[in-house]
Amino acid sequence: MVATSKFERMLRGAVLRVTRPRVAVLTAVHAHPHADTLSILGAVRRELPDVSHQAVYDVLRALTAAGLVRRIEPAGSAARYESRVGDNHHHVVCRSCGAIADVDCAVGETPCLTASDNQGFSIDEAEVIYWGVCPGCVAVPATS
Ligand SMILES: [Zn+2]
Ligand SMILES: [Zn+2]
Question: How far from 76 is each of 80, 88, 129, CA to CA, in Å?
Answer without folding.
Answer: 12, 22, 12
